[in-house]
Amino acid sequence: MEHIKEEELIAYHDGDRTNRERVQQHLQSCAECRAALEKIEAVFAAMDSLPVPDPGENYGQRVWAAISPRLPEKQSPWWEAFFAPRRLVTVGAMAAVIVAAFILGRKTVEPPKGGDVTSEEQVRERVLVVAVGNHLNKSEMFLVELSHAQPNPASGKLVNISAEQHRAEDLLEENRLYRQTALKEGDQVMASTLDELERVLLDVANSPEQVTQARFDSMQKKLESRGILFKVRVVQQGLRDRTNPAKQPVQQNQQRNISRMNHKEGNLA
Amino acid sequence: MSQMTSSVESGLGPNLLPDAVAVERTLAGDRDAYRILVERHSHNVYRLAYRMAGNSHDAEEIVQEAFLRGYQKLKQFAGQANFGTWVYRIAANYAIDRLRQRKVEDSRREPPARESEEGHELDPLAQIKDSAPSPERVAGSSQLALRMQQALKELTPAERTAIVMRHWDGCGIEEIADVLKSSTTAAKNTVFRAVQKLRVALEPFAEGRQAARAMGVE
Question: Residue B191's closest CA among B155, B154, B166, B156?
Answer without folding.
Answer: B166
